[in-house]
Amino acid sequence: MKAGKLNWEDLKTIIDENRKVVREDVRIRSGIGEDCSVVNFGDMECVMSTDPITGASVNSGKLAVHINCNDIASCGVEPVGILVTILAPESSSLEDIRRIMEEISEETEKLNVEILGGHTEITRAVNKMVISCTVIGKGKSGEAVATSGAKEGDDILVTKHLCLEGTSIVVNDYEDKLKNILTTEEIKEAKGYIKYISVVKEGILSAKSGVNSMHDITEGGVLGALWEVAKASKVGFKVYKNKMPITKITEKICNKYAVDPLRFISSGSMLITTKDGNKLVKLLKSQNINAYIIGKITREKGILVCDEFEKEVVPPKRDELFVLEEKLK
């Protein structure tokens, strides 16, 4: 099998075949497009999500914190605590593990998230560092936003720029091979994209304004996230390529290596659907967060408009990050 997420049909089959218990106190349960589960505890509810970091060598500790806290933020609630598992190959040093934990500590401090525990192990089972985290959040009962809440007629927004995570990963891990297409200043800027990976602020702010759905844009890029939202919500969408916010640096890399930026891992950007997109854009801008309306939720089918041609969006496959890394190795 090739590296990347499991095919969604295979994954759904495995999940459905093995979900033997369905409890009433689980208000939202994980599934295709639904990255968090929400458990009711009376007046409050607990939101939980888990994800590993496998595709990055540099900044892996930082990414591990933010991709997990971002999932919690996509429900519109505050992340409270994190559990960290580190599986390190035998080639690792104590300093390697110390560096990762320092990164995790620094980023959790910024988000006011406590490290609750975890597990650290040196193992022959991996050939590079694997970091897997579980984050829990809390909110008032019934207030967590589900991915499956998108409604026909909603405006579709994305925050900041797409591909921030993917661009940061490849420039940090393959700087020497990108010097022929990027300037020194551009390399420095791209490495700095890691500073904008968190979507906690816009997630909590948007939820308070009354949005219908949110989804952190991770593997599969914006088209993968759109497909997952539509699948979970049983709706369609129509979006426009020329409205997608992508930096010139990302465009340079993607054009050079024939990579689709719309299917490039994009933590740092939140996908939001809401009845009044212009109102939310203004609200976010007032808090120094740029947001862009890229299309609308429709009744059926996912459509990308590119140069006036319409193309139906297919289920997400392998993220372009893995394709790009193979070309750079």
Automatic annotation (TrEMBL):
Coiled coil spans: none
Pfam families listed in its UniProt record: AIRS (PF00586), AIRS_C (PF02769)
Signal peptide: none
The PurM-like C-terminal domain, residue ranges: 151-302
Domain PurM-like N-terminal per the UniProt entry, residue ranges: 33-137
GO biological process terms on file: protein maturation
UniProt record similarity statement: Belongs to the HypE family.
Name of the protein this chain belongs to: AIR synthase
